[in-house]
User: What shape does this take?
Amino acid sequence: MGRRGYVPEDEKQFTGKQLKLLRKAADEVQFLLDRGYDVKPVTTFVGNHYMFSERQRLALARSVSAKEYVRQRLGKELLQKGKGYLPKTVHIDGFNTIITLEVALSGSPVFFCRDGVLRDLAGLRGTYRIIDKTQEAVGRLLAQLECLGISEAVFYLDAPVSNSGRLSGMIRQSAQEYGVSVQTQIIPDVDRVLGKMEGVISGDAIILNRCENWLNIMPAIVEKMASVWEIQL
Assistant: This one.
């Protein structure tokens, strides 16, 4: 058993009074970002004021984006334009998407961010291990692609991250049960490559700012899960 992205302190830091304070702080972060301040000093400044933990500050940084960035991202998002605009091939930020789904399946907090994207706090610092939720996460992702009529998916996995080869094999094996043709690529610079692509699936804000267009499929996948700890700041 493994609970991806779970920290016991979350039960206090993202509920009750702390959650109310975080929502108030998120509005203050929004105000400053919209006036051109950078996210790191802003979340440090606001986080210090409320004496937030590093994890609470990370939640703020991932949840709130300057309205101009939100507008740009939403303008490039393809699902809202209708099925006729969907590409035949999608390019998937493999670890980013699968980890978020594992976090949701683990009952750990996922954040419905102000740009409509689902993000988590799990992070990836060069280490990754397959857990008992991984297979289901991959299956739910492929099922959603099949539901949308996507015929081909290319998963990009970060080469320096441990177990990228094992995850690649699991993705290709799972794909045999779905009507989606799947390729996996293990490469050293996933963010740079996806930043130049069309039909991207990722929750990474920098990739979403740079890519040609993208599909926000994660909220629909998580909606179908039985019990998810979803937080909106």
